[in-house]
């Protein structure tokens, strides 16, 4: 299937299925990004994330940030390709990724995959994880993708359906306080109205037993991390 980015389509043709944001952190297994990119996805580069896309031969629909990692020559090329460029001043309160996420939500994105958000710097990694709890981003399903791992946030009152293969590792980590009323189905070590304390490791290294698994939470924030199991011959 040929990938056609929305900025190359006529307005009446545009139907954005998902939004993919590429940040400037480490990009493990970059081919996964290329594989998961679908026709019609809105593709956003958060400043230096543009370099990851260029390495894959991809052109974003939008580049956003203070653009300190984008060269003047790249800017000229982007303008010639009619890429939307949103430049913010260097002295700003938000990171480039936060700006990209807020932009996507303002454009009514409800399903967002973020690549390159983790690994380069500990402070940026922690900040990017905590962005999942940003009140203005709660309406969207945001997944941080890092090679064979995915992370998302479950908010009190919600139920998450988690797909994967039996044997995948699933960890449930309370964020910003205790997680109250945790109930799981389809995991090897089940919880029924359980209580996971912030700062404790009880929820680490569970195992997906059947797909989809279901995780519900009554109160708090629960960071859900899934890591694919090693497959024979992979």
Low-confidence stretches: 1-16
- Say what the CATH topology of the largest domain is: Rossmann fold
* SS field, number of helical segments: 5
Share in helix = 10-25%
CATH architecture title of the largest domain = 3-Layer(aba) Sandwich
CA radius of gyration is 19 Å
Count of distinct strands? 13
Q: How many strands, what sense, and barrel or not for the largest sheet?
A: 13 strands, mixed
Query: Beta fraction of the residues?
Result: 25-35%
**Strand pairing plus helix content: what structural class?**
alpha/beta
Q: Give the CA-based shape.
A: globular
CATH-assigned homologous superfamily of the largest domain? Thiamin pyrophosphokinase, catalytic domain
The CATH class of the largest domain, by name, is Alpha Beta
Describe this entry's structure for a reader.
With 234 residues, this protein is of the alpha/beta class. It has 2 domains: 1-147, Thiamin pyrophosphokinase, catalytic domain (Rossmann fold, 3-Layer(aba) Sandwich), CATH 3.40.50; 148-234, Sandwich (Jelly Rolls), CATH 2.60.120. The chain has 5 helices and 13 strands. The protein has helices at residues 30-36, 49-55, 72-80, 96-106, 122-130; strands at residues 19-22, 42-46, 62-65, 84-87, 111-115, 141-146, 149-155, 159-162, 169-185, 194-196, 206-207, 213-216, 219-227. Strands 1, 2, 3, 4, 5, 6, 7, 8, 9, 10, 11, 12 and 13 form a 13-stranded mixed β-sheet that branches. Strand 5, helix 5 and strand 6 (141-146) form a beta-alpha-beta unit. The two termini are 24 Å apart. The model is unreliable at 1-16 (pLDDT under 50).
């Amino acid at each position: 299937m040929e990938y056609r980015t929305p900025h190359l389509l006529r307005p009446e043709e545009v139907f954005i299925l998902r939004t993919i944001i590429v940040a400037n952190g480490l990009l493990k297994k970059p081919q996964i990004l290329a594989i998961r990119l679908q026709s019609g996805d809105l593709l956003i580069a958060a400043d230096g994330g543009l370099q990851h896309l260029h390495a894959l031969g991809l052109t974003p629909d939008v580049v956003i940030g203070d653009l300190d990692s984008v060269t003047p020559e790249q800017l000229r090329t982007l303008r010639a390709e009619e890429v939307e460029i949103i430049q913010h001043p260097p002295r700003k309160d938000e990171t480039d990724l936060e700006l990209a996420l807020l932009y996507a939500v303002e454009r009514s994105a409800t399903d967002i995959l973020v690549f390159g958000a983790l690994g380069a710097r500990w402070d940026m990694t922690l900040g990017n994880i905590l962005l999942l709890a940003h009140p203005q981003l709660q309406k969207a399903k945001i997944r941080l993708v890092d090679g064979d791992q995915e992370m998302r946030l479950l908010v009190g009152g919600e139920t998450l359906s988690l797909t994967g293969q039996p044997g995948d590792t699933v960890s449930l980590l309370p964020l910003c306080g205790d997680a109250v009323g945790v109930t799981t189905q389809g995991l090897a070590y089940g919880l029924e109205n359980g209580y996971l304390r912030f700062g404790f490791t009880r929820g680490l290294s569970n195992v997906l037993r059947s797909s989809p698994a279901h995780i519900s939470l009554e109160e708090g924030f629960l960071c859900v991390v899934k890591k694919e199991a090693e497959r024979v011959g992979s």
